């Protein structure tokens, strides 16, 4: 398990990075935290001739909290974002989800933007990107462009990114004040990729026990090809926050298409997705 | 006074070195060595039509490329069948490099030696092997069907078939008031040591000597095997097991192909060569264990007492049979646990499949046997409506019946005769620890809250410390340093500590002065290896006997010097003194000087042993006819039979009523391994064993598809439990010393693993109310079972067991 030979590029500036990516084109790969790419190289499942290592590029490691969004640069580690109190204060869902991404050692190296660029349907952060209406900041030899999260993912491990493009940052959209969120998943072992996972955002009106749901949306992990948002409002709007949430079942089931693998059947994942949705809704409305 | 070390929770001597990164593993050796990589079969069953290595030899940095054709002499012959047994009908082993045919994915075909491993892998990737596909035989059911064969000359895919019977099962079964039949299944798992295998070979062409470092559980075994394969005199081969990062059984198998090929290539190329196994190789070219299908028929009376037990099982031995039938023999014999079956018949078929071979993994066949027996005990309890612990206790062998002969032959070819044990006392302790009698109330309360909880139990007896022998060598230097050597190898268990404890007590020296070497054939060429929970029993007793010989000699010399009787002497803190007269004393180091008459004084202390230094009897030679120079002792411990440890575990699990996720709330262990040398180390062994057992019960499996591809050959998909999956383990001990060895020790290494699968199955069954007949079990499977039982409606036990009242 040793990688095939490759040329390692270590640009220091964004311009240099873009130029290098332009040169190596389809023979190259961006190397961020390496937590997904390095195993693939070691098993020789991919043999790129060039690695463009962005870890030493200036200015990519910033987390910026603005009125409408939390902007996360390409080399911000999962762990740094998870621990960022300013980001948590305005968008608790980031930390709620990041806690479930692998284990601390992997979060210390792996990047949130990298995991979105990697677009694994069982990654947590792509689903957070779509639920928050994130905007992808893409840069490449042909200039800059911005892509909405819902347009970004094309299939498992496939995005609209061209081989010579860098995902420079992701702007996670902030919810309106009062939106309550929760993230829940079930994995075979603590920190594994989830069998199924769900992020929910719920708007509630009224106070205490009398509060009712206005709107609820959910995004899923491991049960769809690309991260999608399912609007549950139709099933739950007007319901008390102490509802059993049983009404979401049909909406969830029609919005997901889980595949079976060696860890769980498709039916099991369907059951799990619906049950986790109910539990996440219950958790979210409690966390006020 | 020297505090007694034996029995104390002495901190491990090896840990400061190991936890500060100063361990020395095979891959830490040989920075200048050339490295090997292998082309391994991507197919489970195929004929090799052609091997084209042209693309590889041109790669810069490649030294050599070898195929089977290059292997000369015995190196090209089949690898040995290590443990012949009369039940083996078709014993097939592979070659170091495949010849003509491959029988599992991962089998080595071409060896590439290059300047480093990267280059070796680059070159290996360019080698083109052309195959003609044969039908792969995967899974026991397909193998048993026998329409396709793994080996053309192994009809029905049967490697071995064995039937043993004690008593007369047929009439007893016919006469039994109740009978039950259970069809059981248990999946494969594997040892997965943190360090894979590894070999480094140094050939000294001037001296014609081969030095091998191998990450092995038996350096004497590897040494002998390599000498034979390379046609070298044994005296010119040495093998050392340096620090080894875990073994758990897979490294007792030998010689692995690489253990032959790396030394062979080192000699051929006259250069150091090494190979470090990577994880993917470990998954597909080392060994697995556990996979069995079992059919148990049991006859019992109205009180749940066994009248007859009839067990048939099919054991998946993988593609080859180099380790013989040790695993199924252990299943067949150790299945009986602490119980008296009255009449017992067991028959097994060891089956070939086109999968990685099967050799012992911690527990070695016992987890399967314990699972069969304990599932049966629970089924009897359910059938009669009797408490599960009660049914077990009614079938226990009683302490006054010890020694108890089960009437079978054990894995060492000797009688399955339990030497000691107090099963009722163990059960009482377990029930107290887990709160057995209070559980019903707890369960009721939990159910009222919509929770599902279950209590499970499992009992086992483990034959440990099997022969043939192990040796100890103890040498006191003139500095007072005590060197201890045993040939048995160590993989992190704490041998350096417990052997030092034993020697420190026997000799009366500080444990800090005792230095233990294991697994080095230069220091102790006669040894067997580390397996079957035998380290403490075998080497512990051997070094004790060797230390006693040293003590006797020291006392003799001291008695002479102090002009007192030996009986009046004691040794404490490295000083020999007259009891009651502490001023009349002599240091053990001085005795070491005196024990070796010298011509030359190499240092101050040595002067005392030189020829003009003192008075001597001119009529006697400096070394008496029946004596040897030096304060040394060597002895061997060779038992007549295994010593039988035992234990009982209980667990409380909770299953999620909706998602069927399984959580272990409590895990309790009662453990009896005779006299305990170091309770902290035993506890650690039990914890590690339980952790591996939980892996086997709830997480690990080898997922082969029908073409023989292992779908989960990485730690991403082979789910070894993390610390987060292993619950706190509560333990309590019982010490019934073994009457068989001087120290009263029984083995403890494998104990923790054995009953876990049975215990977890029992607990889940209790929580769910339907039988669990296949393990391991995952949430998705439990959820499927719930749906099946919900559909089936009534009679939850009817699924796989049948009950009939005899007329
Ligand atoms: C044992 C283990 C468990 C894991 N469990 C989980 C889990 O539960 N959930 C989860 O979400 N992830 C998990 N991961 C993956 C981890 O989160 C990765 O860190 C993440 O998926 C990729 O981020 P990275 O920075 O390591 O990217 P890399 O590995 O460096 O790159 C991954 C891919 O994305 C591309 N890429 C990376 N950054 C960019 C960029 N800025 N622009 C364009 N392309 C880019 C690379 O070229 C490559 O193709 C696990 C990893 C391991 C090793």
TrEMBL record, chain A:
PROSITE patterns: FAD_PCMH (PS51387). Keywords: FAD, Flavoprotein, Oxidoreductase. SUPFAM superfamilies: CO dehydrogenase flavoprotein C-terminal domain-like, FAD-binding/transporter-associated domain-like. The keyword Membrane does not apply. One of its GO terms (molecular function) is FAD binding. Residues 1-177 form the FAD-binding PCMH-type domain. It comes from the Bacteria. InterPro entries: CO_DH_flav_C, CO_DH_flav_C_dom_sf, Diverse_Substr_Oxidored, FAD-bd_PCMH, FAD-bd_PCMH-like_sf, FAD-bd_PCMH_sub1, FAD-bd_PCMH_sub2, Mopterin_DH_FAD-bd. This is FAD-binding PCMH-type domain-containing protein. It comes from Knoellia subterranea KCTC 19937.
UniProtKB/TrEMBL annotation, chain B:
InterPro entries: Ald_Oxase/Xan_DH_a/b, Ald_Oxase/Xan_DH_a/b_sf, Ald_Oxase/xanthine_DH-like, AldOxase/xan_DH_MoCoBD1, AldOxase/xan_DH_MoCoBD2, AldOxase/xan_DH_Mopterin-bd_sf. Residues 20-135 form the Aldehyde oxidase/xanthine dehydrogenase a/b hammerhead domain. Gene3D superfamilies: Aldehyde oxidase/xanthine dehydrogenase, a/b hammerhead, Aldehyde oxidase/xanthine dehydrogenase, molybdopterin binding domain. GO terms for molecular function: iron ion binding; oxidoreductase activity. It comes from the Bacteria. Residues 795-807 have a biased composition (Low complexity). Signal peptide: none annotated. Residues 788-807 are annotated as: Disordered. Keywords: Molybdenum, Oxidoreductase. This is Xanthine dehydrogenase. It comes from Knoellia subterranea KCTC 19937.
């Amino acid at each position: 398990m040793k990688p095939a030979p490759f040329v390692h590029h270590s640009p220091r500036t964004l311009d240099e990075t873009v130029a290098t990516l332009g040169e190596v084109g389809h023979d190259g790969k961006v190397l961020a935290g390496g937590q997904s790419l390095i195993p693939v190289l070691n098993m020789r499942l991919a043999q790129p001739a060039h690695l463009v290592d962005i870890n030493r590029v200036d200015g990519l490691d910033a987390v910026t909290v603005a009125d409408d969004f939390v902007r996360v640069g390409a080399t911000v580690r999962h762990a740094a974002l998870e621990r960022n109190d300013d980001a948590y204060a305005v968008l608790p869902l980031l930390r709620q989800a990041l806690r479930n991404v692998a284990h601390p050692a992997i979060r210390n190296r792996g990047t949130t933007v990298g995991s979105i660029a990697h677009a694994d349907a069982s990654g947590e952060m792509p689903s957070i990107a779509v639920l928050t209406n994130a905007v992808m900041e893409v840069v490449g030899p042909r200039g800059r462009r911005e892509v909405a999260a819902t347009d970004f993912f094309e299939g498992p491990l496939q995005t609209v990114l061209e081989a010579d493009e860098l995902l420079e940052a992701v702007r996670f959209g902030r919810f309106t004040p009062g939106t309550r969120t929760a993230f829940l998943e079930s994995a075979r072992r603590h920190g594994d990729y989830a069998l199924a996972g769900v992020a929910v955002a719920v708007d509630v009106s009224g106070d205490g026990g009398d509060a009712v749901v206005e709107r609820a949306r959910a995004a899923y992990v491991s049960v769809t090809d690309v991260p999608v948002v399912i609007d549950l409002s139709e099933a739950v709007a007007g319901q008390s926050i102490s509802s059993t949430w049983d009404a979401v079942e049909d909406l969830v089931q029609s919005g997901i298409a889980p595949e079976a693998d060696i860890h769980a059947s498709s039916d099991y994942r369907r059951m799990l997705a619906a049950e986790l949705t109910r539990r996440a809704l219950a958790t979210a409305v409690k966390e006020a | 006074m020297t505090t007694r070390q034996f029995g104390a929770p002495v901190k491990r001597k090896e840990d400061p070195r190991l936890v500060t990164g100063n361990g020395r593993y095979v891959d830490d050796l040989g920075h200048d060595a050339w490295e090997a990589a292998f082309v391994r079969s991507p197919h489970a069953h195929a004929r090799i039509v052609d091997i084209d290595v042209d693309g590889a030899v041109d790669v810069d940095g490649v030294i050599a490329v070898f195929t089977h054709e290059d292997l000369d002499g015995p190196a090209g012959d089949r690898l040995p069948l290590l443990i012949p047994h009369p039940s083996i009908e078709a014993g097939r082993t592979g070659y170091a490099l495949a010849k003509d045919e491959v029988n599992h994915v991962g089998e080595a075909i071409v060896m590439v030696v290059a300047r480093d491993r990267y280059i070796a892998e680059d070159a290996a990737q360019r080698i083109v092997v052309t195959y003609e596909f044969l039908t792969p035989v995967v899974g026991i059911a397909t193998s048993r069907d026998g329409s396709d064969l793994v080996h053309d000359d192994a009809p029905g895919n049967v490697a071995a078939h064995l039937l043993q019977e004690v008593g007369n099962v047929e009439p007893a079964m016919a006469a039994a008031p109740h009978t039950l039949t259970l069809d059981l299944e248990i999946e494969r798992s594997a040892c997965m040591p943190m360090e894979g295998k590894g070999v480094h070979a140094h050939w000294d062409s001037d001296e014609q000597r081969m030095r091998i470092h191998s990450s092995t559980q038996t350096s004497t075994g590897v040494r002998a095997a390599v000498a034979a394969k390379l046609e070298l005199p044994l005296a010119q081969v040495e093998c050392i097991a340096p620090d080894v990062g875990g073994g758990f059984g897979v490294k007792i198998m030998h010689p692995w192909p690489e253990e032959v090929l790396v030394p062979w290539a080192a000699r051929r190329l006259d250069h150091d060569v090494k190979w470090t196994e990577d994880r993917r190789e470990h998954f597909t070219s080392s060994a697995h264990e556990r996979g069995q299908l079992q059919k148990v028929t049991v006859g019992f009376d109205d009180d749940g007492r066994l009248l007859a037990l009839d067990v048939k099982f099919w054991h998946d031995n993988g593609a080859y049979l180099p380790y013989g039938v040790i695993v199924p023999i252990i299943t067949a014999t150790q299945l009986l646990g602490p119980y008296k079956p009255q009449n017992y018949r067991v028959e097994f078929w060891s089956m070939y499949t086109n999968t990685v071979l099967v050799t012992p993994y911690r527990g070695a066949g016992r987890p399967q046997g314990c699972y069969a027996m304990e599932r049966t005990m629970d089924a009897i309890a359910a059938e009669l409506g009797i408490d599960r612990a009660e049914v077990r206790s009614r079938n226990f062998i009683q302490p006054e019946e010890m020694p108890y002969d089960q009437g079978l032959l054990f894995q060492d070819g000797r009688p399955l005769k339990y030497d000691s044990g107090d099963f009722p006392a163990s059960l009482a302790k377990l029930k107290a620890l887990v709160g057995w009698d209070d559980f019903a109330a707890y369960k009721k309360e939990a159910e009222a809250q919509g929770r599902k909880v279950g209590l499970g139990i499992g009992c086992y007896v483990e034959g440990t410390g099997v022969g043939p022998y192990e040796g100890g060598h103890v040498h006191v230097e003139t500095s007072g340093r005590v060197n201890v050597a045993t040939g048995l190898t160590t993989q992190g268990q704490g041998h350096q500590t417990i052997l030092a404890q034993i020697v420190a007590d026997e000799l009366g020296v500080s444990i800090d002065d005792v230095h233990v070497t294991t697994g080095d054939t230069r220091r102790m060429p006669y040894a067997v290896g580390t397996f079957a929970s035998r380290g403490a029993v075998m080497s512990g007793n051997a070094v004790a006997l060797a230390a006693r010989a040293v003590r006797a000699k020291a006392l003799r010399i001291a008695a002479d010097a102090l002009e007192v009787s030996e009986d009046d002497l004691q040794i404490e803190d490295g000083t020999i003194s007259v009891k009651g007269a502490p001023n009349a004393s002599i240091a053990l180091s001085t005795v070491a000087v005196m024990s070796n008459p010298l011509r030359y004084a190499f240092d101050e202390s040595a002067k005392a042993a030189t020829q003009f230094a003192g008075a001597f009897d001119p009529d006697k030679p400096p070394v008496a006819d029946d004596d040897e120079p030096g304060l040394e002792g060597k002895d061997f411990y060779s038992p007549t039979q295994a010593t039988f440890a035992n234990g009982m575990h209980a667990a409380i699990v909770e299953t999620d009523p909706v998602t069927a996720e399984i959580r272990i709330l409590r895990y309790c262990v009662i453990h009896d391994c005779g006299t305990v040398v170091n309770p902290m180390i035993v506890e650690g062994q039990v914890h590690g064993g339980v952790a591996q057992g939980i892996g086997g019960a709830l997480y690990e499996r080898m997922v082969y598809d029908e073409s023989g591809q292992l779908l989960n050959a990485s730690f991403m998909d082979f789910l070894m439990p993390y610390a987060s999956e292993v619950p706190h383990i509560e333990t309590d001990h019982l010490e019934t010393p073994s009457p068989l060895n001087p120290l009263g020790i029984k083995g403890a290494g494998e104990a923790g693993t054995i009953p876990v699968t049975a215990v977890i199955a029992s607990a889940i069954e209790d929580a769910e109310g339907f039988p669990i007949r296949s393990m391991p079990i995952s949430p998705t499977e439990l959820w499927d079972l719930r749906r099946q039982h919900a559909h089936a409606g009534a009679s939850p036990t009817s699924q796989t067991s049948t009950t009939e009242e005899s007329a």
